[in-house]
Amino acid sequence: MNIILLSGGSGKRLWPLSNDVRSKQFIKLFKNENDAYESMVQRVYRQITTVDPDTKLTIATSKSQASAIKNQLGEKTSICVEPCRRDTFPAIALAATYLHDKLGVKEDEAVVVCPVDPYVDNTYYEAVKTLQELAEAGDSNLTLMGIEPTYPSEKYGYIIPESGEQVSKVREFKEKPDTETAKKYLEQSALWNAGIFAFKLGYLLEKAHSIIDFKDYQDLFDKYDTLTKISFDYAVVEKESSIQVLRYSGDWKDVGTWNMMAEVMADKTKGKAILDETCENTNVVNELNIPILCMGCKDMIVAASGDGILISDKERSGYMKPYVEKIETEAMFAEKSWGTYTVMDVQPGSMTVKISMKPEQQMSYHLHNHREEVWTVVSGTGKAIIDGAEKMIQAGDVITLNAGCKHTVKAITTLDIVEIQLGEEISVADKIKFLLN
Prior knowledge:
Layout: E1 2-7, E2 30-31, E3 37-38, H1 40-51, E4 56-62, H2 66-73, E5 78-82, H3 88-101, E6 110-115, E7 118-120, H4 122-137, E8 142-147, E9 158-161, E10 167-174, H5 179-186, E11 191-200, H6 201-211, H7 217-222, H8 232-235, E12 243-248, E13 252-254, H9 258-264, E14 269-270, E15 273-275, E16 283-286, E17 292-294, E18 300-305, E19 308-313, H10 321-324, E20 333-336, E21 339-347, E22 350-357, E23 365-367, E24 372-379, E25 381-386, E26 389-394, E27 398-401, E28 407-411, E29 415-422, E30 432-434
Parallel strand pairs: 1-4, 1-6, 4-5, 8-12, 14-16, 15-17, 16-18
Antiparallel strand pairs: 2-3, 6-11, 7-13, 8-11, 9-10, 9-11, 10-12, 18-19, 20-21, 21-22, 22-29, 23-30, 24-27, 24-29, 25-26, 25-28
């Protein structure tokens, strides 16, 4: 299979664990077959490659999420990075062009586009494989997968098929309705539109060229910030007359809120948490190194991280987005391709950060113009390169890096460093990268 996995999201609805850098698909609340915690993107990747080990999977994502994907899935993961956010049609057009120009996928090959965030079992990806086969057969220009509704939902758009058969031509699409209208749709064998579709690559490239003036992948990438923000549904799906839909009736959950996530997360609590015997239907996720005690809590979600603390009724947690948008803080935790970055303390003129690096990983070679840094190696061994000079480092070493000094570090073993940043202007933008000879 050729799969484009859409990984986006602003990280508001699972605050405080998610943020602009760590969206919900990177939070490790599920468990794999070895009983180890895994994230949504790791779970989806594992499921797809289990169903079809030969799958060619490319993740379309924003620049801010690329490091987290490499951290969780490995450096060899195929990633198509959007220079900025421009909604789903530009993202899919860029990814399709990337498949053709960079990965050599032929125009007559079928491509399936899937979101990264449903909670499903493997039958879902077996249906995705069927979707690809239907697209390859070429009976329609677009082949969608519709979810068999379990109730008349107001949260989803609807696909109205011409019949209730397993594969049917599509009659029309409907926007998110009220409950009574949704009931009428269900009487017409309607399906939830979950944003899963397949096409031959040549079809999508032709559509992209008809809407956007570009030559090839690099040209599209270079002018990406000038593109109109528009969804794939509006730009392509709703204007296409040759569409069929595959009906999927297996388990499917959209875990976009804490209320839904609580239903599927592996454990009732994660981190330092104690629930007394009177608590009912309460979940706690604690990323802080202090205990949380819950007593008499009923139908509650408690989530704590360096970004903040949420205490909410489960049902009410689905309405948190406008309140979270009022909270202006920098992300206190980020996954990088080389490890993790955790802000421990922020003061006027200083910031203290814990850096944890994976073995054999290396940061970029860079400098800061407006701050100096003091590294204290807490554990492990590595090699620092400072203005071209190499230095072995180990637990107990202290290194001062002046503003304007080029530097990097490579971990030999797992390497933990406490970094104190000092300066009047401490900003993530204050970073200039260089190639390391």
